[in-house]
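Changelog-adjacent note: as of this version, every example in the card shows the full chain rather than a window. The one below runs 338 residues end to end.
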Amino acid sequence: MNIRENIEKSEEYSIIPQGSKSKNSMGRVRSEELDEVRTAYMIDRDRIIHCKSFRRLKRKTQVYIKTWSDHYRTRLTHTLEVAQIARTIGRGIGLNEDLIEAIALGHDIGHVAFAHSGEEVLNELLTNGFSHNQNSVRVLTYIENNGQGLNLSKEVLDGILYHSGFSNNSSKAFTLEGQVVKYSDKIAYVNHDIDDSLRAGILSMEDIPKDILEILGNTHGERVDTLVKDCIYRTKSNINSNDIQVSLSKDIDYNFKKLRDFMFKEVYNGEFLKEERDKARFILIQLYKYFYFHEEKLPEFYKSIAKEEGLNQGVADYIAGMSDEYCIDLFKDIYIPS
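Full-length structure tokens:
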């Protein structure tokens, strides 16, 4: 029995029956020989963390564009916080931590520069629209590895595809591990964006509704702790009642959604960030127009996409992969005289 088989055997005891065992994976689009050390989900995690798109997350905005301090979150630090929260919840429930980590590390890999402003621009410009979760799957299955993709397992891709949305009607991943990442993403960004907004002076603690803080907690750590523990205990209760889904308890869920709505109103769509969002939109629109009308300037890989799938798609794929700084530098090179 090799090391991988030993790990798979240990999963039979450490993972609950409703969790995802590595040996039961639905597999990959292209079949591969089994590794003698790593399980399927361990391989997926390693492929994601070593790919170029993952490294570019360090230069992509979370909320604050071109920040002046090293302490503000980037898309990469957000991803790491999601992964840690998700692993804690997953371990508490008894799920597959390797699958959780792979989904968490890849969930935002298709995000555009300049946070959600970039996503909105491409969504407006493309006939079929654009969403970062669908683009994350596209990057991992096609764009990465010079058009070959990373050949990830179906469970990982499904978890990445369905990590967005927070309404009761939104689609869920078919694994509990994928559902854990969906909740962990929200727990991470709502709370760390409050922390960054306090640091930036956009919010004060007095601005946040007191009734929410009384339920969830007054500090960043208290709120995360409340939400993580509630998610674990509520999900375990669900499973014991044969309701196989990840969720929060009714009162915690209600107050958490109120806190998220508050952040959208006061920060994400607030007036303070409007000027910076408008600048980001302008840069991305001008870059899109430039490469649309100067197809010959596209890198060869994206020219091939344009030939196969249309110029809109080739330009969108090129822009979607850019970091904030690369967008700004490219804009300067194209439009500002030297």
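Structural remarks: The mean pLDDT is 94.
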